[in-house]
Amino acid sequence: MVDIVNHYFEPYKGHIATIPGLSGDERLNACVSFYKGQSDWFTNATFKVVIIGASEARNSVDNKACDKAPDKIRHYLYALSSLSEGLQIGDAGNIRGNSLNDRYRALQEAVSWFVRRNIAVLVIGGSQDLTLPMAKGLLEVRKEGTINLAVGDAVLDIDVNSEDFSSRSWLSYLINELGSKLEDLVVFGTQAYLCSDSQRRFLDSRHYEMQRLGDLRGDNIRNSETLLRDAQAVSIDFRMIKNQPQFGSDLISKHGIEPFDICRILRYAGISERVAVTGIFDVYLDENAESNAMLAAQMLWHFLDGFLGRAHDYPDEESGRYRQYLVPVEGLDEVLSFCRNIENDRWWMKAPQQEGQRWVACSRDDYRMASRNEIPAKWWRLFRKHSETKNIEKNE
Q1: Cα(324)–Cα(347) distance, rounded to whole angstroms?
Q2: Which residue did the predictor score with more confidence, 153 or 23?
Q3: Which of 4, 47, 88, 187 is the most exposed place for a label (fewest CB within 10 A)?
Q4: This model's pTM is above 0.70
């Protein structure tokens, strides 16, 4: 298997930018082990995070130039300030493959290989349709047989009238192909005027979640931490950011996530110990290529900075760090259970699943809603989803 994985990669050979005041060991590249063609690089891996370039955009509808993004982003990423000496990073180079399916298969197997060894994967695209092989590679490793996916995008890449697979229809294709293996999905940062009713119904009918851009404005950006905490895979369309061409053309939109906030979101993804693979896709390089590449590099840097703060954080009554709250809600036969980490004020609630219940990330606001005899939206969504699934199984 090592020989196969070794064959999948072309080493990164690009140059590193110069930033005044940063040089030598003070730059991030000093923390990186670069693959240079040697097979023992994989067998002797001691790094905790690996960067994979996926220079593929043949299925892109409107951003073919994004296949040049991986090396351009690295040019700036490795020039940024180094992080703690305790963080070891690997750069496996760029995915090889003559055909489109070759690239998809190579990415899928590479993600599976690294995650199986408890190495977090950062994928630099390429177009966002690469999320499908990324997710399938993760599924091969998950003993539960399911994944939770968080997607950042200004639009819904859903085409309810076609089964074609592209950067503008990959999400509906992924949902249909993975089926029940996609345990949960949240799409955040969407702009309502760019999403159709049929696209929203497609998500709602499957009890998946959509968080609009307005839900993440200002201090509400903190809500993105809750969205990412349960995810194992994260996929970001770079064009969700302000001043990017979100309409599928060169027309620049004045709306979108602020650059500061997208870096904060990536930091949340880095902190979340459950996130095993993260991809940044569709970086727009036709205009403002250098500044966009630098921003994408800063996003990756914030992920790595967050990764340093990873620590096991999941409700455990015996640890003494968690306090549980039982809240009766009028009209419900059961009492809602909440749990709070008293050290960092993170919250969870017990929500229905296929068998029994599980702790899912929530916010203090969800607890407050329950205290007012209001059912939290996430609990109600998961309750309806699993109730329908059980009814279907009973009738089969």
Answers
A1: 10
A2: 153
A3: 4
A4: yes
Distance (Å, rounded) from C-alpha 267 to C-alpha 278? 11
Residues ≥6 apart with Cβ < 8 Å to 178: 135, 136, 139, 147
Question: Considering the domain 2-307 in this protein, what is its CATH number?
Answer: 3.40.800.10
Dist CA 381 CA 364 (whole Å): 18
Q: How far apart are CA 187 and CA 237, in angstroms?
A: 11
Residue 137 has pLDDT above 50, yes or no: yes
Q: What is the 3 state secondary structure string of 215-261?
A: HHCHHHHHHHHHHHHCCCEEEEEHHHECCECCCCCCCCECCCECHHH
Chain-centroid distance of CA 248 in Å reads: 22
Question: CA 389, CA 55: separation in Å to the nearest integer?
Answer: 39
- Identify the burial level of 183 via C-beta atoms within 10 angstroms of its C-beta, where 0-12 means exposed, 13-18 middle and 19 or more buried: buried
CA 298 to chain centre: 16
Amino acid at 329: V
Gap between the Cα atoms of 124 and 116, Å rounded: 20
- Other beta carbons within 10 angstroms of residue 377's beta carbon come to 12
Which percentage of the chain shows pLDDT scores above 70?
A: 96
Average pLDDT over residues 294-316: 96
Q: What is the dihedral of CA 170, 171, 175, 178, to 10 degrees?
A: 50
Distance of CA 260 to the CA centre of its chain: 17
Q: Specify the 3-state DSSP secondary structure of 315.
A: coil
Work out the burial of residue 250: count CB atoms within 10 Å of its CB; fewer than 13 is exposed, 13-18 middle, 19 or more buried: exposed
| Position 104, amino acid | Y
Longest dimension (CA), the chain: 68
| Every domain of the chain and the residues it spans | 2-307, 317-395
Sign of the dihedral defined by the CA atoms of residues 80, 220, 229, 168, in that order: negative
Q: Is the dihedral of CA 53, 58, 59, 64 positive or negative?
A: positive
Provide the 8-state DSSP code for 155. Answer: S
User: Would you state the structure tokens that stand for residue 283, as one six-digit string?
Assistant: 């970086």
Beta bridge partners of 125: 54
Q: Specify whether the CB–CB gap between 299 and 266 falls below 8 A.
A: yes
